[in-house]
Design brief:
0% strand, 5 helices
Length: 121
């Protein structure tokens, strides 16, 4: 049974990795894409509008399977909204790391003895 669950989860992960929102999250987690995390949050608005439209359709006698669409849209909206602050933190960390590396590259290496340094026995 565990083998079946494991195989199903692997296949589901493989299929879901090609979903548009997951592709967008993967792109915004790269170093070049970190700056697009906040603008990508705006893509949560269409998901929320679609969820709202499905809810009003269901309330007016629409099919029940639209509840799954509501869940999917709400989940994608939550992922995109939470991705914005996460990418800001990751961008700040990357910029600090790069600044430290630049500073270390400019600074002379003080561990090596200099030619003018006195050597005391």
């Amino acid at each position: 049974m565990f083998r079946l669950i494991w195989a199903a989860s692997v296949r589901t992960h493989t299929i879901l990795s090609y979903a548009p929102s997951n592709l967008l999250l993967a792109v915004t987690r790269t170093r070049r894409g970190l700056r697009w995390g906040i603008p990508a949050m705006l893509l949560a608005i269409p998901y929320l509008l679609a969820a709202h439209w499905c809810v009003t359709t269901i309330e007016n006698g629409g099919p029940g399977w639209l509840n799954l669409v509501v869940l999917l849209c709400a989940w994608n909206a939550i992922k995109l909204i939470l991705n914005g602050p996460v990418t800001v933190v990751l961008l700040l960390r990357a910029r600090v790391r790069e600044a430290v590396a630049r500073c270390r590259a400019r600074r002379p290496d003080y561990d090596q003895p200099h030619e003018y340094a006195e050597v005391h026995p």
